[in-house]
C-alpha cells in the first residue's frame, strides 16, 4: 500500500468537518425514533464532544496509524461490554428507567452489536489510511465508550429500591482502560498543532 505523504494528508483535511457534522445530525434523526431520547442524549453528547475535540486537535494534525493501538483496544473492550449488556438485559433495564418503548432488544443488538462495530472497523482502516473522518471516529470512540461508560454506575440510582447491578456494570471499565490514555494521546495533538 502506498504511503500517503504529510502534504497529501494536510490537503485532504481541508473541508473535513462536513462529514462528521452530517454524521451527528443523521444519528440524531435516525436515533430518536429507533433508540429513544435517553440513548440519543448519551451517544449524541459523546458525538458532539468528539466533534469539538476533533476540530480543535486532530483536524489539522491527524495522528493516523499511531492511534491504532488505543483505538482497537477500546473498540474490542466495547465489543465485550456490549456482549454483557446484551446477555444481561440492558435494553429492558433502559426501557424501565427511561420509558423507551422503541428500544427493543433486536434494535440494540443490530445497532450496538453489529452496525457500530462495523463503523469502528472501517474507522480503523481509515486511521491506517490517514482519512480525516477516521480521526473524528477515534474521538467519538474514545470520548464515548472510552471514557463515559461510568454512567452504568449511576443508572442503579435511577432504579427503584436499593443500589443493585445494572446490565453493563461488570465490563463498563473495559473500553475505558485504553480509552482514557487514548484521549490523552489525541489531546497532545493540540500541542503539536500549536508548534
Task: Give keywords.
9 helices, 195 residues
Q: What report would you give on this structure?
A:
There is one protein chain. 69% of the residues lie in helices and 0% in strands. By secondary structure, the chain is an all-alpha fold. The chain has one domain. Helix 2 (18-35) packs antiparallel against helix 3 and helix 3 packs across helix 7 (132-143). The model has no long low-confidence stretch (mean pLDDT 89).
Summarize the structure.
By secondary structure, this protein is an all-alpha fold.
Tell me, rounded to a whole number, the average pLDDT: 89
Number of domains: 1
Most strands sheet: none
Order of helices and strands: HHHHHHHHH
Can you tell me the residue ranges where pLDDT is under 50 for at least 5 consecutive residues? none
Question: What is the number of E strands?
Answer: 0
How would you classify the quaternary structure? single chain
Quote the distance from N terminus to C terminus.
Answer: 30 Å
Question: What proportion of the residues form beta strands (DSSP E)?
Answer: under 5%
The value of Rg in angstroms is 17 Å
Structural class: mainly alpha
Apparent shape: globular
Range of helix content:
55-70%
Helix tally equals 9
Amino acid at each position: 500500500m502506498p504511503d500517503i505523504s504529510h502534504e497529501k494528508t494536510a490537503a485532504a483535511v481541508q473541508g473535513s468537518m462536513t462529514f462528521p457534522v452530517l454524521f451527528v445530525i443523521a444519528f440524531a434523526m435516525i436515533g430518536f425514533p429507533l433508540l429513544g431520547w435517553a440513548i440519543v442524549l448519551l451517544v449524541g453528547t459523546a458525538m458532539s464532544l468528539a466533534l469539538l475535540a476533533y476540530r480543535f486537535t486532530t483536524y489539522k494534525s491527524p495522528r493516523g496509524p499511531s492511534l491504532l493501538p488505543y483505538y482497537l483496544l477500546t473498540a474490542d473492550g466495547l465489543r465485550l461490554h456490549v456482549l454483557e449488556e446484551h446477555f444481561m438485559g440492558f435494553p429492558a433495564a433502559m426501557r424501565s428507567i427511561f420509558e423507551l418503548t422503541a428500544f427493543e432488544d433486536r434494535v440494540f443488538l443490530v445497532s450496538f452489536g453489529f452496525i457500530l462495530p462495523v463503523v469502528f472497523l472501517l474507522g480503523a482502516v481509515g486511521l491506517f489510511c490517514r482519512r480525516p473522518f477516521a480521526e473524528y471516529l477515534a474521538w467519538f470512540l474514545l470520548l464515548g465508550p472510552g471514557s463515559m461508560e461510568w454512567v452504568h454506575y449511576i443508572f442503579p440510582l435511577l432504579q427503584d429500591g436499593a443500589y443493585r447491578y445494572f446490565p453493563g456494570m461488570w465490563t463498563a471499565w473495559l473500553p475505558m482502560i485504553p480509552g482514557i490514555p487514548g484521549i490523552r494521546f489525541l489531546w497532545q495533538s493540540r500541542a503539536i498543532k500549536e508548534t
